[in-house]
Amino acid sequence: MEQTLKVCVYGATGYTGIELLRYLTNHPHVRVVSAVSKTYAGRYISDLLPYFSHFYLSKLMLTEEPQEDFDLAFLCLPHDVSLSTAPSLLEKGKLVVDLSGAYRISDPNLYPEFYGFEHTHRELLQHAVYGLPEIFREIIKRGRFVANPGCYPTAVLLGLYPFLKEGVSFDKVIVDAISGVSGAGRKTTQHFHYPEMEQSIIAYSVHKHRHTPEMEDIIKRISGKHVKVRFTPKVVPTSRGMLATIYLHTEEKHVEELFWETYKEERFVKVVKDPPTTKYVIGTNMCLLYPYYDERTQMAVIVSVIDNLGKGASSQAVQNMNLMLGFEESTGIETLALFP
Q1: Among candidates 158, 155, 198, 194, which has minimal Cα distance to 178?
Q2: Architecture of domain 5-148+313-325
Q3: How many helices (H) and strands (E) does the chain have?
Q4: Taking a C-beta distance cutoff of 8 angstroms, is the pair 30, 324 a contact?
Q5: Which CATH fold would you assign to the domain 151-306?
Q6: Cα–Cα dist 308/243, whole Å
Q7: pLDDT class of 2 with cuts at 50, 70, 90
Q8: Known catalytic residue at 151
Q9: Of 1-5, 240-244, 280-284, 290-294, which gets the smallest average pLDDT?
Q10: What does the domain layout of the chain look like in residue ranges?
Q11: What gap in Å lies between CA 49 and CA 57, rounded to an integer?
């Protein structure tokens, strides 16, 4: 498809919004025509982010509302704000990729418990396509409204998909996952204040995390089974990157072959022979998976690494946009890692 797509980025000065601008700047079929930021409205992007100075975005002014008509909106907004913003945009005929969690879970009754609000647009939950391309690629191609996955669910679901795809039996999953501090967003809080975060590791939301029902919901959509996920997230003093270790009891011993077969044609998911580090994926749309079967415990162990701001958020959002518009899926997001 040869065209210039006009794009608006809502929440353009948060971490996911900034990362989106970085990818979209060099996308050959896209022009960002509006960048919405209530915090920095009235300022140019290059005033806040000087590294955009030599690109067309440098003189794009941040505004409280879009100043030019557009075709597609990326919503890098708080969950409750996206909840009300998405319906109004869809009514106007816009395509929407929502990076919040407002439309990821199909059961509206879970939102008060895990997100703290009543879901007021329940009818849209049935129309939101879950944007994990390696699993839902063909549905995304037909979608007008994509709910971009959470970062932890992206890493975990890609690590579980080979088992789900082949119908391998297991009844529960244990996930121990680590994220860089950027996963908490750009606004500062006491826990993530530098003097408290430096040389520290924090486990949080141990009793209940909003990504747990998201993972369980997608597992059920794929397999038709309700599988319990025991999820414990941690934050370490690095800016970005995510490593999830997934454990499940199974009699399927040939897990390496299972993973190689599932992902052999995928551009952005690669199976590796040694446990990967987050350094291998920073600044990319890649997910690296290391599968291992422990015969002593009859446990499959999968190590999954992504960039939480890349494949866990913004570059995956661009991947979804490419599919929705019929562009080559890797356009604008095929980059090498920032190593070391």
Answers
A1: 155
A2: 3-Layer(aba) Sandwich (3.40)
A3: 11, 14
A4: no
A5: Dihydrodipicolinate Reductase; domain 2 (3.30.360)
A6: 9
A7: low
A8: yes
A9: 1-5
A10: 5-148+313-325, 151-306
A11: 10
